[in-house]
Design goal:
5 helices; catalytic activity; Phosphopantothenoylcysteine decarboxylase; alpha/beta; two-stranded antiparallel sheet; CoaB-like_sf; Rossmann fold; disordered N terminus; DNA/pantothenate-metab_flavo_C
Length: 231
């Protein structure tokens, strides 16, 4: 990062944030889709914390039951990975901070039926194609005055996989959690994370509420990485 940023305090007034949250749904036909277990709780908690500290947040949200009433948060609802990517491309150029907390589908059906697929054969084969890698795409476009945070949910070789993702996506900070940690990840009101910085620093945290985890992430951003100084 250049000298535009220095660690001052937790005040994020004036910061423009792009944040993604929730799952995506990849249509198979008009009534079925491929998705995952993400609830959006972590992303929405982080949006609230950043907004409370003064940031203006654009929250690109996949389908979720989570809501927010904070006046500094603008929710942009999307459904598919393609829709989320298009929204991110639109808002990314003006974002100083981008946090990619959504659980985006890696694959989408190659062909989407325009009518409900009827049950016929014993076996049914669905051909899938890769979706756009949002983090990698934005990472290639990232300017020196932009800061990107990604998330890595892993089941094995957690630290190594997260460190590799940090580099390959051109992230500045990655939030790692593991499905092997009880009470963490999808469907819980709690989470347990490890924060890995681009400079190699690693900070591990115990099991906490997702609100408290959001505060830990915001603290790392605001006090260590991304507080604007007066020009």
């Amino acid at each position: 990062m250049n000298s535009l940023f220095s660690s001052v305090n937790t005040n994020l007034t004036g910061l423009t944030v792009l944040l993604t949250a929730g799952p995506t749904q990849e249509a198979i036909d008009p009534v079925r889709y491929i998705s995952n277990h993400s609830t959006g709780k972590m992303g929405y908690a982080l949006a609230e914390v950043l907004a409370e500290r003064g940031a203006q947040v654009t929250l690109v949200s996949g389908p979720t039951n989570q809501t927010t009433q904070h006046p500094a948060i603008t929710v942009v609802p999307v459904r598919s990975a393609a829709e989320m990517y298009a929204a991110c491309l639109h808002y990314f150029p003006k974002a100083t901070l981008t946090v990619l907390a959504a659980a985006v589908a890696d694959y989408s059906p190659k062909v989407v039926a325009d009518r409900k697929i009827k049950k016929k054969e014993y076996e049914f084969r669905l051909e899938l194609v890769r979706t756009v890698d949002i983090a990698a795409s934005l990472g290639r476009q990232k300017r020196d005055d932009q800061f990107m945070v990604g998330f890595a949910l892993e089941t094995d070789n957690e630290l190594a996989n997260a460190q590799a993702k940090l580099v390959s996506k051109n992230l500045d900070l990655i939030v790692l959690n593991s499905l092997r940690d009880e009470g963490a990840a999808f469907g819980h009101d709690t989470n347990q994370i490890t924060l890995i910085h681009r400079n190699g620093a690693i900070h591990r945290f115990g099991l906490k509420s997702k609100r408290a985890v959001a505060c830990d992430i915001a603290d790392q951003i605001s006090t260590t990485l991304l507080v604007p100084v007066s020009m």
